[in-house]
Design a protein that fits this description.
The chain is about 40% helix and about 15% strand. The chain has 11 helices and 9 strands. The strands form 3 sheets. The chain has a 5-stranded antiparallel sheet, sandwiched between helices. A hairpin with a 2-residue loop joins strand 7 and strand 8. Helix 4 crosses helix 8, helix 6 crosses helix 11 and helix 7 crosses helix 9. About 30% of the residues are buried.
């Protein structure tokens, strides 16, 4: 795979590609490709397409995504399948889940060097990770009442995701193939594969947690569409309401409670669980108990296994952080030795397993 893509060459190639896709368009021009302000698992770029149809000038703001380049990947390479992500967003387009409109999928890598898809840009703001929304940005500047509104709307959006008829939406390809009983086992197997890329023994706390998860596994009462990477930083807000849900790379068909626990865990990771200089959560943001209660009220279902999935969330992210700590570029850029970002997660797992 190519190590990098010349963005100006890609822009020129894309202008020709748009001309083929839009034979009715004339005077096609494309803005330079601009990356977002924060990192992303896939390569993500903003672009603006200008063209004419007859005497009418038209403009379309879009977002383009392609797989990460280079040799280092957090997930196995097959996890960055652009066509599956495109199919997922397409399947959700007629549901109550707000997602960007997907316009095109190109599987032929000869166009710019890799497969890619293009979706519409959604106006709004995204709670930041770097710096954390707990210390700056629109949510930090909002009133306590507005913060609670944002949080609860995110929880309600999560409940809507779990209500999607995933079979009717054509999302069967997300699995699992073994029914309800195999959900956690298939997830453990997947994260085994993620960790195996490290080429080193699993830390004792992770091995202990893995065994605990398998020994205490159970058959979920229901399977639903799970977003996978459930967090404020993957949502676009406008007027304190969710207008788009982004980044579906970790989506699966599984136990919806796993999404809820990940949502709470990621918030902890951006505040009290920070590896350096932990910070307090924003005043006004509902706590875990209030979050669970609101989800139960919205979904009409009782949350019964939050502790189990809290353990699973910490385990999953700890494994992903062990992967990040294998990246020499990250270690050099951050100035942090191995063990810094995994440390709070290992400590949390010790506490959770002792509870």
């Amino acid at each position: 795979m190519a190590q990098q893509i010349d963005l100006e060459v890609a822009r020129t190639q894309l202008e020709k590609w748009f001309a083929r896709k839009m034979p009715e368009a004339a005077d096609i021009s494309l803005s330079p490709l601009k990356p977002p302000g924060a990192g992303s698992s896939n390569e993500t770029y903003f672009l603006t397409l200008n063209w004419r149809e007859g005497q009418e000038a038209r403009t379309l703001k879009m977002v383009m995504r392609w797989p990460p380049l280079g040799d280092f990947l957090v997930f196995p390479r097959y996890a960055y399948d652009m066509s599956l992500q495109y199919r997922l967003l397409k399947g959700l387009s007629n549901t109550k889940v707000p997602v960007p409109t997907v316009h095109w999928m190109e599987e032929d890598p000869s166009v710019i060097g890799v497969p890619f898809y293009i979706m519409g840009e959604v106006n709004g703001w995204v709670p930041g990770d770097f710096p954390s929304y707990h210390v700056s940005g629109p949510l930090f500047e909002a009133s306590e009442a507005e913060r609670a509104q944002v949080w609860f709307d995110a929880v309600e959006t999560l409940a809507r995701i779990h209500e999607v008829d995933w079979q009717e939406a054509g999302l069967d390809f997300l699995g699992p193939k073994t029914g309800n009983q195999g959900f956690i086992e298939s997830q453990i197997a997947y994260y085994d594969e993620v960790f195996a890329q490290n080429g080193e023994p699993m830390p004792p706390i992770l091995a202990k947690t893995r065994e605990w998860l398998l020994q205490n596994s159970f058959t979920p009462k229901r399977l639903s569409l799970c977003w996978g990477d459930t967090r404020l930083g993957n949502m676009v807000f406008r007027d304190n309401q969710v207008v788009a849900v982004l980044d579906w790379e970790m989506a699966c068909i599984g136990d919806p409670e796993s999404d809820l626990a990940w949502f709470a865990h990621i918030d902890w990771t951006t505040s009290g669980g920070r590896p350096v200089a932990p910070i307090d959560r924003l005043a006004g943001l509902p706590d875990v108990a209030a979050t669970i209660a609101h989800y139960e009220k919205t979904s009409g279902r009782k949350v019964e296994n939050f502790h189990y999935y809290d353990v699973f969330a910490a385990y999953r992210l700890a494994i992903l952080f062990t992967r990040i700590e294998q990246d020499e570029k990250y270690l050099t850029r951050s100035g942090r030795p191995k063990g810094v970002i995994t440390g709070p997660h290992f400590a949390k797992l010790e506490r959770l397993l002792a509870a």
